[in-house]
Amino acid sequence: MATWHKALLAAALGLTMVSVGGLAVAQSADDHIKARKDGFQVFRTSAGAIKKVVDDSAAPAGAVAPAEAIAQQAARQLQHFPPGSDQGKTKAKPEIWANWAQFEANMKDLEMKATAVAAAGKAGDAAALKAAFGAMGGACGTCHKAFRAD
Predict the structure, then answer these.
(1) Which of 27, 45, 118, 150 is least surrounded by Cβ atoms within 10 Å, i.e. has the fewest?
(2) Distance (Å, rounded) from C-alpha 108 to C-alpha 47?
(3) Which residue(s) pair with 16 in the sheet?
(4) Which of 8-17, 23-32, 83-92, 139-148 bottoms out in mean pLDDT, i.e. has the lowest?
(5) Rounded CA gap, 102 and 104, in Å?
(6) What's the CA gap between 123 and 118, in Å, rounded?
(7) What is the C-alpha separation between 83 and 56, in angstroms, rounded?
């Protein structure tokens, strides 16, 4: 079956198509909700690891890998918010889809700020790392206020 036929069938069934290892795979809203929750767990775990490095300040390079993990996840997180995935066990507000351009910009901002955290870690600059980490945390908070239900 042609890929476009699969996409049409998936849409008719309330599924979305995503590419996994070059293969088109149908995902339900529940699959997307789980995938984005997993992605947000990457953010939480990685931010916690960076905070430990910032608090210690002895080895800024320890922040590089978790900051890069956040940046990479931010770059792919949007794919898990297709239309129709606002129903179910999710804290995603409808404002995400109503203000998609802003949500997309916020996720790009997080990616850039996480990249700055990684750069400060690579440079071994504890003061720059602390400042970059604070800015990254601000990006998280901005998005939570607008787009996450408590």
Answers:
(1) 150
(2) 17
(3) 27
(4) 8-17
(5) 5
(6) 9
(7) 42
Helices in 13-125 by DSSP H: which ranges?
A: 29-56, 64-77, 95-98, 100-123
Q: Which residue has the tokens 């529940």?
A: 30
Whole-number Å distance between alpha carbons of 27 and 17: 6
Residue 68 is encoded by which pair of tokens?
A: 């890069």
Tokens of 11: 């849409």
58: confidence class by pLDDT, cuts 50, 70, 90: confident
Q: CB under 8 Å to 120, separation ≥6 — which residues? A: 60, 63, 128, 129, 131, 132
Residue that has been written with the tokens 């430990």 in this structure: 52
Separation of alpha carbons 141 and 105, rounded Å: 14
pLDDT digits (tens, 9 = 90+) for 40-51: 999 999 999 999
**The two structure tokens encoding residue 13:** 């069934």
Q: Which residue has the tokens 């590419």?
A: 19
**Three-class secondary structure of residue 128 per DSSP:** helix
Environment class of 107 (CB within 10 Å of its CB; exposed 0-12, middle 13-18, buried 19+): buried
